[in-house]
Structure formats: structure tokens, C-alpha cells
């Protein structure tokens, strides 16, 4: 078996722990899902599903439809399938388990979705991606208009132990949390293409184009004295946390000696003997809404007439969707949005209509990962600045570009023109420090 560096997570080894956590957090998942799932939801996506604890809770809240659970590691996916097989029997809601790694983008997730998701849940997953901002921006594209992204990150550290245990120095649990913070910082620093995100999760969701954004924090406490099963669960969780940090040298020698005694069932100081353990957790879920796209029918009809096109229903419906979008959208996305809105328009018709609107100058065509995507642009002549991280597009006045092209002419002797000029850059939201 290959041993990974101390600051890299071996997800295959985490499968058993994630299964235990999914079962122990069953009640919390149900509580959160009751607030998140709407009666009209028909398609939900759980990204970084672990052992499918929240997948099952979402499915229990839906009257019919489909929940897609996605994770990157085969052994974790096996654990998710086993958990679903044991717990789920309702044929009205299908649960599918698929392999997808958010660190590699959302193409695999998009392929698994028949249309935009009503609800996208992701817990403790995004922070394992080097560029968290780009990951959130990509996840929002998987939502339908009016869909919600629920991000479980943050909250307050759990409280399990008294401040003074009589073993080692007081404050043992707080120093363990400090060591975990140091581990987390190093883990983030070692991720491929890692980038800092110097603001909170709610601001990150807003910058990804979601609004409104809110946070719900749930206080989860078990009555004391804890039942034996709950005490053993607390001890097992602490042992898991300490074992993960042992190779890092982040826990002081004196604290390691204390933990060895406290976590040893054969030692008189074993934590499992104590009745003053607690289980107090505050967990935060940040929720953002993908805004509904609303454009005046009169406006789209006028634009079509001005371009010499008859304002048919299909043209008005297709033109409405790219209008006002900060990022180009594909024909598949347009088709999915129309289907979700109850419009019976075929994909071939959508492709044909988008081509005709682009030929008439009402839409601009972009290349997004080798696929044609469309955006509605303003009437004035302009070029485009495209963020190569999140895909956001800004319109640049032609006179500004003309001055730059003139400087190029003076320096190179070439006479460049601005027809079809798209400039790739990094937007302020993706790199606020620049």
C-alpha cells in the first residue's frame, strides 16, 4: 500500500470513517434536509457525497425525482452504494452514484445531469480544491434558474472534553484544534494550483453569481451524561483526529503522551470511563440562489424585429436565456432551462435558433472548453474580456482597444484589426489582490 504525505488525504482509507460519520449524523442530515428540500424539487446533486448520508436525507424529503451522489474515490463510492442499498427502497425517488472529481472541473457532473439541478449540496468538499472560487463558480452553472446551492463549510469547533482532564496540561482539546488548523493550512498550501480566498463563504457565493445568500447554523447537542454508545463515538472521533496528526509532528510530545493514555481502553485514564464528556457541535450551511432570468417579452421581440427576424415563440424563448448572463451558456444549458420551465422545445431547434440569433448579431459566440457558448451583448461596438478562471465576460469599449492596437502597429509594423477580438484575463472577483 502506498503511503501518502502527511498533509494529503488518503480518501480510500477514509471510507470506513465516512460511513460511520454518515450514520452518526443521520439526525442532523434529516434536520437540514427538511429546511432545504422544496415540494417542487425533482433533481438534486450531492457533490462530495462521502457515504451518502445527506444523499439519503435529501431523497427522503422529495416526493419524486432523482438524487445524484458524486465523489472521486472508488472505495468511497462503494461505501455510498452499500449505504444506499441498505437504506433506500422508495421507487419514487431514484438515487444514482457517479464518479466525479471536483478538482478536475464539473464536466463529469454536467454529463450526469439531465437538466439543471433544483438543489446542489456539497459538504466539506470545496475546501479540498486548490481554487475554491473557480470551483464555486463552476458549481453554480449546474443549477437551473431558481436553483439553490447549499454549502456546508465552517461553523464552530466541536466541544467534547472538559478543559482540565487531570492528564497532561489543561486545554488539551483546544491545542488539538490548533494543530488541526495548522494541518489544514498546510493541506491547502500543498494542493495543486492552490489560491487563497481572502473572504468568507457567503461572499464567495455572492461573487459566484448567487443571490440572495444566507447562512443557517444548527446547534447540535446530545444530553449529558452521554449514553455509552455516544461516549464511544466521541472517543473514536478523537482517536481518528489524533491518528491523522501523528505523522505531522504538530502535536507536542507531552500532549501525545496524554492522548495515548486517554485513548487506550486498557488504561485507567481511558476517556470511555468518564461521564463528563459532551457532544456539542455548531454546523453552518451557506445557501445561495441562482437568480431567475426575466427579460421583457416586448424587448426581445423588438430586438428580433430590428435584426430582421420574425419574433417567433422559439426565438423569443431562446433569446431570453442568454440575456443578462455574466457568462456564456451552451445550447444544452438553454435547452435544459426551457424544459424545466415547461417549454417543449427540441435540442435541435435550440441549436438552430442560437445559430440564427448569432448570425443576426444578437448573440456572441464563445469557445468554452471546445464547445460553442452564447451570450447576449450590448448594441455598441465592443470587444470582450473573458476571465479564464470563472468564465465571466465584460464588454470593453472599442475605442480603448483601438488605442492599444495602434500602439501594437507602431511597435510591430503590423496593422491589426479588432474584428472578433476576445481578450483573456483574470477578473477582480477571481483575483482581488491584483
UniProtKB/TrEMBL annotation:
<keyword id="KW-0804">Transcription</keyword>
<keyword id="KW-0862">Zinc</keyword>
<feature type="domain" description="Methyltransferase type 11">
    <location>
        <begin position="45"/>
        <end position="150"/>
    </location>
</feature>
<keyword id="KW-0678">Repressor</keyword>
<dbReference type="InterPro" id="IPR013216">
    <property type="entry name" value="Methyltransf_11"/>
</dbReference>
<dbReference type="InterPro" id="IPR029063">
    <property type="entry name" value="SAM-dependent_MTases_sf"/>
</dbReference>
<dbReference type="InterPro" id="IPR002481">
    <property type="entry name" value="FUR"/>
</dbReference>
<dbReference type="Pfam" id="PF08241">
    <property type="entry name" value="Methyltransf_11"/>
</dbReference>
<keyword id="KW-0238">DNA-binding</keyword>
<comment type="similarity">
    <text>Belongs to the Fur family.</text>
</comment>
<dbReference type="Pfam" id="PF01475">
    <property type="entry name" value="FUR"/>
</dbReference>
<dbReference type="InterPro" id="IPR036388">
    <property type="entry name" value="WH-like_DNA-bd_sf"/>
</dbReference>
<keyword id="KW-0805">Transcription regulation</keyword>
<protein>
    <submittedName>
        <fullName>Transcriptional repressor</fullName>
    </submittedName>
</protein>
<dbReference type="InterPro" id="IPR043135">
    <property type="entry name" value="Fur_C"/>
</dbReference>
<dbReference type="InterPro" id="IPR036390">
    <property type="entry name" value="WH_DNA-bd_sf"/>
</dbReference>
